Automatic annotation (TrEMBL):
A Pfam family of this chain: sCache_3_2
The name this protein goes by in its record: histidine kinase
Metal-binding found in the keyword field: no
Upper lineage: Bacteria, Bacillati, Actinomycetota, Actinomycetes, Kitasatosporales
Alphabetically ordered keywords of this record: ATP-binding, Cell membrane, Kinase, Membrane, Nucleotide-binding, Phosphoprotein, Transferase, Transmembrane, Transmembrane helix, Two-component regulatory system
EC number: 2.7.13.3
Membrane topology field: Multi-pass membrane protein
Transmembrane segments: 173-193
Catalytic activity: ATP + protein L-histidine = ADP + protein N-phospho-L-histidine
Predominant location: membrane
Entry's localization field: Cell membrane
Enzyme class name: transferase
Keyword RNA-binding: no
Length: 528
């Protein structure tokens, strides 16, 4: 025999379980209500029986009949009282418990079936007892003569059937109310189940469990960060990648973005104060691309992509492309110079040819040698040498100031390359295609390094000097392969992380001058 299956659908399970609960609660409530009613009816019946017995015992004629053991008089009086009151029986006994009256005359002269001693001792007794007439509510009192002497007892009983009939008459109303409550509960359960059916798209419980498992696996398995927010800006859910990219604590759920992230562009993008698609933002030394989608309940889902390595590769590609273009131009220029040299030799002007060779070979070598002498850190030196070649191709003079000096003592060469490279790139972009000039100044003060990059470009208006340091802000059109507005923001993150400072003002050439102070950037060295 096949066992019945529990319904698979959510709404069906809810309907069945709620129906069982409603029926059970209604039945228990009705039972709890009927139980005290039944006890109250029993007490009322016993009190009524006691009152009839007391009224019977007050009849002197019946007392004298009991004293004389006159069963005929006792029987007549007792039956009159029974018929008048509707009691089940009125029994009068003598002091030995022998019946002098009974509804069944054949039982007169026999001892009563229940104990008469308490009443014969002068006590009034009420009880639910089983006797010759079945289960009855009884009241027993002593039967006394005028002088107070006890000559017997009076026992009055009200049948259990009459009590049950009263209970049933009251139970009909109780059950009717319970039925109305049950119907209302079932109707509410049905409406709730139908609403839940629409909201859950009639899916099965097993499907919900599978969806939750799959969602957890998907959220924590994808390599993009995902943050879900509610309408108040509190975090509902953040996957492992989002915790890593944003450096959030594992217990971030329920807390607002503004409470977890420092003020800035990233917090503004996550909360929707800045809108758009593929918005760049910086968190520590990471470059993130953020997209935010609002949900129907007023919340939002934000995705985060880590572009740090890609951004680094793109910058290297840009530098490589610039160097390639510079080498191509130098090759073209070298060919022109060789043609010039060949012409001088063919014309027999050997002295002019020698002077031309010395002039052309010495200029670039002198610049490279000067950079190598002043900038002893190999990473920053190579960076400036490459930037100088790119600048020369653009018609821009890139110079390292005469008072510059950078020993090979960098604590974090990568951070220095980020700072110097981005500042020089920004300056070259400001100068444009030339002619123009960019000056780089590097000065150690103990373990602190001062970096200044000044250009001959248009400069930065005073009202924009704070804005240019924010990530995502740029005055130039972004190329197709990467967003702009991140270089100075990355410099700002390095400065912030080291506890330094970054300032913007007007340089000696009339353009912008960026000054960076990096504490503890160098291992201690002695300076002249």
């Amino acid at each position: 025999m096949r066992r019945p299956h529990w319904p698979r659908r959510v709404f069906a399970q809810l309907l069945l379980s709620q129906t069982v609960v409603t029926v059970g609660v209604t039945a228990v409530t009705a039972g709890l209500f009927l139980a005290p009613v039944s006890r109250e009816l029993d007490r009322d019946a016993m009190q009524r029986a006691l009152s009839i017995a007391q009224a019977t015992a007050a009849d002197d004629a019946l007392a004298r009949a009991a004293a004389a053991r006159d069963s005929r008089t006792a029987q007549q009086g007792a039956e009159q009282i029974r018929l008048a009151t509707g009691a089940s029986f009125v029994v009068i006994t003598d002091t030995d418990g022998i019946r002098l009256s009974h509804t069944d005359p054949s039982r007169i002269g026999l001892r009563v079936s229940t104990d008469p001693l308490p009443a014969l001792r002068g006590e009034s007794v009420t009880a639910i007892q089983d006797g010759t007439l079945g289960r009855t509510a009884r009241g027993k009192v002593p039967l006394r003569l005028a002088d107070g002497r006890i000559v017997g007892e009076v026992s009055v009983g009200i049948s259990d059937g009459s009590i049950r009939r009263r209970l049933l008459s009251m139970a009909n109303g109780i059950l009717l109310c319970a039925g109305a409550g049950l119907a209302a509960g079932l109707a509410a359960t049905l409406l709730l189940a139908r609403r839940l059916k629409r909201r859950t798209h009639n899916i099965a419980v097993a499907d919900i469990a599978a969806l939750l498992v799959e969602r957890e696996a998907m959220l924590h398995g994808i390599r993009e960060g995902m943050v879900a927010l509610d309408g108040a800006g509190r975090i509902r859910l953040a996957n492992d990648e989002a915790l890593r990219l944003l450096a959030l604590p594992e217990d971030c759920a329920g807390r607002t973005v503004d409470a977890l992230l420092p003020p800035g562009r990233l917090a503004d993008v996550l909360t929707g104060r800045i809108t758009g698609t593929d918005l760049p933002a910086v968190r520590d030394d990471r470059v993130l691309v953020v997209n935010r989608t609002t949900t129907a309940d007023g919340g939002a889902v934000t995705t985060l992509r880590d572009r740090t390595e890609l951004e680094s590769l793109v910058r290297e590609l840009d530098n490589t492309r610039s160097l390639t273009e510079a080498l191509r131009a130098q090759d073209h220029e070298h060919a022109n110079r060789m043609h010039t040299l060949l012409g001088l030799l063919e014309l027999g002007r050997h002295e002019q040819a020698a002077a031309f060779i010395s002039e052309q070979s010495g200029s670039h070598s002198a610049l490279t040698a000067r950079i190598s002498e002043q900038v002893q850190d190999p990473h920053v030196g190579a960076l400036l040498a490459g930037k100088a070649a790119v600048a020369a191709e653009r018609g821009v003079e890139l110079a390292v100031t005469a008072d510059s000096h950078l020993p090979d003592a960098a604590v974090d060469a990568r951070a220095l390359v980020t700072v110097v490279g981005n500042l020089v790139d920004n300056a070259l972009d400001a100068v444009g295609a030339g002619p123009g000039a960019v000056d780089v100044r590097l000065r150690p003060v103990g373990a602190t390094l001062l970096v200044e990059v000044a250009d001959s470009g248009p400069g930065v208006p005073e009202e924009l000097r704070t804005l240019v340091l924010e990530e995502g802000w740029t005055s130039k059109d972004a190329p197709a392969h990467r967003p702009r507005g991140l270089g100075l923001a990355l410099v700002g993150r390095v400065v912030e992380r080291s506890g330094g400072r970054l300032a913007v003002d007007t340089g000696p050439r009339g353009g912008a001058r960026f000054t960076v102070e990096l504490p503890e950037a160098l291992h201690p060295v002695e300076t002249a």
